Structure to design on (1280 residues):
């Protein structure tokens, strides 16, 4: 195991450091709160050519160009910027370019500007073929970024590494920063599977016949599925080197729990505190924290919650017409079970950056233990408690 | 009658070597497409040591017909507005890797004038080391001739235009050269496949420079409604009527006119095309007059016409 | 270094490397272009009795390959240096460029080819046992000998004069055709292997029958040796009145004739009359007047000759004809009557005279040139039927093995004589080889009924396929977008040349010649400008190994741009499914 430097940094600094440790030499930058600091840090790095772009769309397009040459690239965005990239997101994944993008999730301007943490932005990209790893702390941002390079470049799919805006981006915490040499060793050389040299006839991404389109799309599907195993292997190696272990879904006290909280993102920290507290009070509660949202670790989740009676899913997002995204995907994951399965309680909390307090989580747990499960609509949890 | 004689003669004469096409046959462009002679010439002059990017356009189809490629060089097909930044990113990365391929974008007027204008402006303002060719055929031809801001107001289009009651009359097409000149980029030029020596000189010069360069090519499109065989004749008329001046702008300020057109009647040009059947050509003529007045004034600042 | 591989190989992207040329886009075509220029001809070539490939020669000259252009002309005629001086250039009258700005100065360029590109003939290989006799070493006889020698025959030319040349040496004045030019041409024929027997008059020094015995074939080109008589002049003493031909011969043979201070009248409106007039001037005549029955426009003499005569101070009196001549003191007087109309037909000329009383003109000498007749006395009866020797399109007379050409057989100038001699050479070769000439005109004539090409004939005989030149290219087939107006070159003229017999017209400077040749449209000829290649939207025009381009029919979509943009009509569009005459 390598001894790492320990620094007091926030998630933005951690993200920038991770790009640097991974050996990127080109960055594309466009400012948007709460990720602008990442770009400022990259721009001040003398080893990195940082291009100040004119829009996020062109940030992603520019990064795509960098990846075509088989070179790594650093980009980060949030909210509006991520949505603006939509069209190109599909193209990057379709072209099998292993770009790693950092996102600090922020609410999207629907009714009005709202800069607080909300995960709709990254969840909007679930369908695009990008991998998605989600962090709840600056340390996790540092670590999952490095792991993301490994996984993305192995399966040849791009990856989002996200954290909730402000909670992860702005709060400083002690972070173990791996040294450069070990990081480079872990991440390896960038895959030079880009373009052939000039003079070679090779056309990429042109009009494709439907049968070939199907074949290519199925490859993406299968390779995405295989990413879980790759993540597990890479994480194991990461743990050996750096001492911190990650799983696509991390369980805490879940084996004998009746009620398991399911979270993704920064709510997980609060949930851990609540679980430990309720355990001391003798309640059999547990926690499942999603690290990997794409691919969704359905089998692992199923296995981990197999003996629970109920799942309390707390989503920091809202899909109009559906409800909470993690709850919906959890229900889908459980759907294959033929025998008894935990009931799913879907709660939505923290939209627009409202703090999710321990009290709110306890209210949700209490509701789940006393009332029938929700059907169709989610329950909204605020300071005032659970609302129908 | 001379059949045999000419072949015998060819052995005694110093005939020029056959030119090697980098863009080959078998593609799906319309018979008489005015863009292909341009892309053939451009790719021939630039040579194979380049990487091309093609945003959504007719070229997305004709550069790479199903499962094949017509270009003897790597080409990346991109979504509509993304080619410019992609080219820039690629150029940066190639440079970091010490590779020497040129990065060239072959885009239509839709991408350059409209949906990609932001991205084009961005890389122009940043001086990206990219050579952009705007294949301007005055509309979204791939979808059926729908108007772009490059379509002349006198032309009929499938979408039509707001009537005078709805909106003030559109005065003329966007002037992409002026827009980019305002960015003070290294080199902009207009060129036409009907004037091959002028085109060749400009492509060669642009290829010798670094930084952002754009060459605007006016090419004819059969969707304008003309007989296929008139393709080059019309291309020549776009220039000879003064409608499409051939000139260069260096650093955004040094203008140089490279051809003095005989200023043939614009009716000659319009008469051959269906899209001008209903127009009265007033806007076209006004655009020509204004453009030349402006161009002469600007070119007059540097009367010696020397390169920058 | 890294314990796990991060380079799993190229991922499954959508990538195509196969060339699009596998798609045969030519299948959708309903018409296609062909390079059918071998089947096309320029109007200049069709107008040239010698069928010179003028368009191609111009191309070669413009490329500074006067040598190749010279060789090209020599495929069809023996002495461009001579025709480049004395030909009346019917080609220029048909030049398509004339309608656009000025006709190409083809005649001057022919002279330039000789000046800058001439090379001597190598001895021709005699490969046939038969020999051919040529009677008359004038333009026709020399030409026929030339072609026959190149076809592999041993040829002997008989001429009554002391040296060869016929009209070239004894008729056309030196200031138009220097004797060294003629001498050079004759030397070249000798180098080729043609034998000359000069000072031999057939029928007198050697019987015709003897010739028939010596040679398996004969070509008769005795020319028109007998001046037509002019009755009013016959009444005058011989020292005062002379036929033009005789006058010119004396000047040539004797070197000079002194007419100092004389007043000379020249009767006749043709080239011989004008030649005689200008010669008389140079011989010292104080005043020379050409008197002819024709109006200025009707005069048979070449307009540029008339202009030259006028510029030299020679007067021309039109629409008068002499009625009678008498001595008048120390001079002679001819009375002229006004002519109202001139009628020509069947070789005879008649005038409608005015009723006005005649007027006298006084002169010291009268020269008359009112036509020539052949002297056919040496020929057997069957060849002496009419005013000229009758012969077919390839010089065949009624007597097997006897061919005829030149003025004695009906031509009326040097280049026409050359054309007829070539046809006869073809006739003789076919006769001696026992091959048929049926249908051959279609293959070797430039346009239906046009002049014939010797090169085409040779290719045909060598088993090569020869595309008939069937389509004339007019100005309408020229894409004028590719040309800009330019004036014809100035034709250089010697200063004050009328003072003596030095050559009046000079050769174009080499650069001027190239520039003038560059003005040629090259009608109906591919000059490899490459427009078809450059403008093809399908990369379907491909350079051939030899000359020009071909169409890749697998990919050509038949748009027609190439044909439209060919500046010189070297291509055509034909319906799909129709066979091309040439050029697929």
């Amino acid at each position: 195991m390598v001894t790492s430097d320990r620094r007091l940094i926030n998630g933005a600094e951690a993200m920038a450091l991770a790009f640097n440790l991974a050996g990127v030499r080109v960055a594309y930058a466009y400012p948007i709160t709460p990720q602008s600091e990442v770009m400022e840090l990259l721009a001040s790095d003398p080893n990195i050519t940082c291009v100040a772009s004119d829009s996020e769309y062109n940030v992603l397009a520019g990064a795509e160009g960098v990846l075509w040459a088989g070179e790594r690239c650093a980009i980060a965005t949030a909210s509006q910027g991520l949505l603006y990239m939509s069209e190109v997101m599909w193209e990057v994944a379709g072209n099998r370019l292993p770009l790693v993008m950092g996102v600090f999730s922020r609410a999207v301007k629907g009714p009005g500007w709202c800069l607080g943490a909300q995960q709709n932005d990254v969840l909007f990209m679930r369908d695009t073929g990008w991998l998605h790893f989600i962090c709840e702390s600056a340390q996790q941002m540092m670590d999952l970024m490095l792991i993301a390079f490994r996984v993305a470049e192995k399966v040849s799919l791009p990856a989002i590494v996200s954290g909730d805006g402000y909670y992860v981006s702005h709060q400083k915490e002690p972070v173990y920063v791996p040294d450069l040499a070990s990081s480079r060793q872990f991440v390896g050389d960038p895959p030079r599977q880009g373009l052939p040299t000039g003079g070679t006839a090779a056309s990429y991404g042109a009009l494709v016949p439907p049968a070939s389109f199907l074949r290519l799309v199925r490859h993406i599907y299968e390779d995405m599925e295989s990413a879980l195993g790759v993540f597990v292997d890479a994480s194991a190696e990461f743990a050996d080197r750096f001492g911190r272990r990650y799983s696509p879904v991390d369980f805490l006290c879940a084996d004998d729990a009746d009620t398991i909280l399911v979270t993704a993102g920064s709510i997980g920290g609060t949930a851990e505190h609540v679980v430990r507290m309720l355990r001391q009070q003798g309640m059999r509660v547990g926690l499942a924290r999603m690290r990997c949202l794409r691919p969704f670790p359905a089998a692992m989740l199923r296995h981990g919650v197999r003996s629970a009676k109920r799942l309390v899913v707390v989503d920091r997002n809202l899909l109009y017409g559906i409800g909470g995204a993690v709850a919906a995907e959890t229900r889908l994951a459980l759907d294959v079970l033929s025998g008894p399965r935990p009931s799913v309680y879907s709660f939505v909390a923290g939209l627009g950056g409202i703090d999710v307090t321990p009290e709110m989580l306890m209210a949700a747990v209490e509701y789940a233990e006393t009332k029938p499960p929700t059907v169709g609509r989610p329950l909204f949890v605020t300071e005032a408690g659970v609302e129908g | 009658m001379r059949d045999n004689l000419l072949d015998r003669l060819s052995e005694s004469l110093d005939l020029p070597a056959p030119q090697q096409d980098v863009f080959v046959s078998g593609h799906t462009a319309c018979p008489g497409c005015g863009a292909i002679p341009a892309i053939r010439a451009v790719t021939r002059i630039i040579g194979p040591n380049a990487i091309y990017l093609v945003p959504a356009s007719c070229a997305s189809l004709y550069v790479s017909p199903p499962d094949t490629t017509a270009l003897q060089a790597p080409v990346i097909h991109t979504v509509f507005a993304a080619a410019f930044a992609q080219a820039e990113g690629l150029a940066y990365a190639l440079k970091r890797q010490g590779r020497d391929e040129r990065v060239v974008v072959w885009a239509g007027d839709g991408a350059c004038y409209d949906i990609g204008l932001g991205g084009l402006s961005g890389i122009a303002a940043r001086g990206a080391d990219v050579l952009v060719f705007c294949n301007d055929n005055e509309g979204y031809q791939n979808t059926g001739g729908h108007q772009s801001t490059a379509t002349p107001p006198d032309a009929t289009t499938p979408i039509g235009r707001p009537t005078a009651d709805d909106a003030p009359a559109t005065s003329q097409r966007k002037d992409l050269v002026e827009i980019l000149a305002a960015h003070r980029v290294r080199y902009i030029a207009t060129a036409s496949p009907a004037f091959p020596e002028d085109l060749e000189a400009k492509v060669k010069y642009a290829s010798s420079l670094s930084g952002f360069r754009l060459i605007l090519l006016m090419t004819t499109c059969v969707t304008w409604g003309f007989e296929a065989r008139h393709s080059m004749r019309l291309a020549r008329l776009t220039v000879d009527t003064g409608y499409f001046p051939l000139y260069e702008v260096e650093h955004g300020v040094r203008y140089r006119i490279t051809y003095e057109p005989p200023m043939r009647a614009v009716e000659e040009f319009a008469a051959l095309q269906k899209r001008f059947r209903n127009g009265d050509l007033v806007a076209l003529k006004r655009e020509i007059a204004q453009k030349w007045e402006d161009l002469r004034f600007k070119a007059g600042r540097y009367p010696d016409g020397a390169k920058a | 270094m890294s314990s796990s591989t991060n380079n799993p190989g190229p991922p499954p992207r959508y990538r195509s490397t196969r060339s699009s040329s596998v798609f045969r886009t030519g299948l959708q075509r309903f018409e296609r272009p062909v390079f059918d220029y071998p089947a096309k001809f320029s109007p200049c070539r069709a107008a040239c009795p010698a069928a010179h490939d003028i368009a191609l020669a111009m191309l070669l000259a413009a490329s500074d390959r006067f040598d190749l252009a010279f060789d090209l002309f020599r495929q069809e005629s023996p002495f461009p240096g001579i025709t480049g001086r004395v030909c009346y250039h019917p080609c220029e009258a048909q030049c398509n460029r004339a309608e656009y700005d000025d006709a190409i100065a083809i005649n001057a360029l022919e002279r330039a080819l000789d000046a800058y590109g001439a090379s001597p003939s190598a001895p021709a290989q005699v490969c046939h046992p038969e020999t051919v006799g040529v009677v008359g070493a004038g333009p026709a006889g020399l030409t026929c000998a030339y072609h026959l020698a190149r076809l592999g025959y041993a040829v002997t030319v008989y001429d009554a004069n002391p040296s060869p040349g016929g009209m070239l040496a004894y008729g056309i004045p030196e200031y138009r055709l220097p004797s060294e030019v003629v001498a050079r041409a004759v030397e070249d024929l000798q180098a080729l292997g043609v034998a000359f027997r000069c000072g031999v008059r057939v029928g007198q020094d050697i019987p015709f029958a003897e010739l028939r015995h010596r040679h398996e074939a004969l070509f008769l080109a005795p020319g028109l040796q007998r001046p037509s008589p002019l009755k009013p002049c016959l009444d005058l003493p011989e020292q005062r009145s002379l036929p033009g031909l005789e006058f010119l011969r004396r000047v040539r043979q004797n070197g000079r004739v002194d007419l100092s201070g004389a007043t000379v009248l020249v009767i006749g409106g043709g080239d011989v009359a004008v030649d005689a007039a200008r010669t008389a001037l140079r011989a010292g005549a104080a005043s020379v007047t050409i008197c002819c029955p024709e109006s200025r426009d009707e005069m048979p003499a070449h307009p540029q000759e008339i202009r030259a005569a006028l510029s030299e101070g020679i007067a021309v009196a039109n629409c008068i004809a002499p009625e009678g001549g008498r001595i008048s003191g120390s001079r002679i007087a001819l009375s002229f009557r006004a002519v109202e109309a001139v009628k020509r037909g069947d070789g005879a000329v008649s005038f409608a005279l005015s009723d006005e009383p005649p007027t006298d003109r006084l002169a010291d000498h009268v020269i008359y040139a009112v036509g020539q007749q052949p002297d056919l006395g040496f020929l057997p009866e069957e060849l002496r039927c009419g005013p000229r020797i009758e012969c077919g399109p390839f010089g065949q007379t009624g007597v097997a093995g006897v061919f005829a050409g030149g003025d004695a057989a009906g031509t009326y100038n040097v280049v026409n004589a050359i054309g007829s001699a070539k046809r006869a050479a073809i006739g003789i070769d076919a006769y001696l080889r026992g091959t048929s000439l049926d249908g051959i005109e279609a293959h070797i004539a430039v346009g239906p009924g046009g002049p014939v090409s010797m090169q085409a004939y040779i290719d045909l005989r060598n088993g090569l396929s020869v595309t008939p030149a069937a389509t004339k290219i007019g100005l309408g087939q020229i894409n004028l977008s590719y040309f800009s107006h330019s004036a014809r070159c100035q034709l250089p003229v010697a200063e004050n040349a009328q003072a003596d017999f030095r050559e009046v017209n000079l050769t174009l400077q080499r650069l001027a010649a190239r520039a003038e040749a560059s003005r040629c449209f090259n009608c109906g000829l591919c000059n490899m400008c490459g427009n078809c290649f450059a403008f093809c939207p399908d990369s379907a025009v491909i350079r051939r190994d030899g000359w020009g381009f071909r169409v890749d029919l697998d990919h050509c979509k038949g748009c027609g741009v190439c044909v439209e943009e060919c500046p010189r009509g070297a291509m055509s569009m034909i319906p799909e499914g129709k066979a091309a005459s040439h050029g697929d």
